[in-house]
Amino acid sequence: MIVDAFEEVLKKTSLIPVPTSHPSHVAPIPSVLPTPIDAQFIGDSGKKTLWVVFVLMLIASAGFTALSWRVPLSKRLYHTITTMITIFAALSYFAMATGHGISVQKITIREQHDHVPDTFQEVHRQVFWARYVDWSLTTPLLILDLGLLAGMSGGHIFMAIVADLIMVLTGLFAALGEEGTPQKWGWYTIACIAYLFVVWHLALNGGANATAKGPKLRGFFVSIAAYTLILWTAYPIVWGLADGSRKIGVDGEVIAYAVLDVLAKGVFGAWLLITHANLRESDVELNGFWANGLNRDGAVRLGEDDGA
Ligand code: RET
């Protein structure tokens, strides 16, 4: 009886594959293992950095506003543009510090092996898309600052801004793009080409116009444009190391962009506004539009310039 039952069990279980030890040249088959997830999320130092930059951008905005009160409305164009830049940055840093404007990119990486089936590695990495919203507003304003300073034509400033918007938007598509297809690096290449257009407009056209405004203005434009060029060029490099190839973690990415943002917005703005105060050639009044509007014929003049 017991023997019969035993034989019955043996018959049934003989079809179930029982794990046995593998010959030494064949590795265990990894594809049956659950895919491991490499979660790349922000840590404490990244979160602190976001809050610190939020506060720094607020302080910069207040400082630039205070500087603008020292000059009449007609001379506040750079102040207004530059304050907008740090206000937008403060908003985007507040969003990211509180967990907004972030999505998680899921990437499956196929690892090929010689004798066994391919294995897969899942990576979940945070993408801070709030940055791209920030950049799509602030980089055109930075270009406007530089274009006005150099005395560039409206047409050239407009083209540089359009190229810049293409750069930021295609950069966002790259960050959210799929890997293993031409999508991600294709968008990145398009963004880099758009960036070259921005540099080309500002360097060639901006440089030529600045020269026409005299040696003092040219000297300042060349310095601040070179400073901008170096900082801006660091952004696609950080992108390549962070979202691109994930060689640096999320905290490293947040800190790198934080340093660049403070230099490219805060320090840039302070330098521009302080120098502008002592450089008459940099004045832009847009034929009175900034203080008085387009057509003031017959209108009651209400403005602090008139003491009203
Ligand atoms: C991306 C990725 C795609 C390729 C390129 C990029 C360039 C970004 C730049 C950003 C500048 C931001 C600034 C922000 C605020 O101050 C979008 C990273 C070329 C140049 C100056």
TrEMBL record:
Transmembrane segments annotated in the record for this chain: 50-71, 77-96, 157-175, 187-208, 220-242, 254-274
Localization per record: Membrane
Keyword tags: Chromophore, Membrane, Photoreceptor protein, Receptor, Retinal protein, Sensory transduction, Transmembrane, Transmembrane helix
GO MF terms, alphabetically ordered: monoatomic ion channel activity; photoreceptor activity
PROSITE patterns in UniProt: BACTERIAL_OPSIN_1, BACTERIAL_OPSIN_RET
Gene Ontology annotations of biological process type: phototransduction
SMART domains for this protein: Bac_rhodopsin
Coiled coil feature spans: none
One Pfam family per UniProt: Bac_rhodopsin
Membrane topology recorded in Swiss-Prot or TrEMBL: Multi-pass membrane protein
Keyword Cell membrane among record annotations: no
PANTHER family according to UniProt: BACTERIORHODOPSIN _OPSIN, NOPA (EUROFUNG), PTHR28286
Stated family: Belongs to the archaeal/bacterial/fungal opsin family.
Name of the protein in its database record: Opsin-1
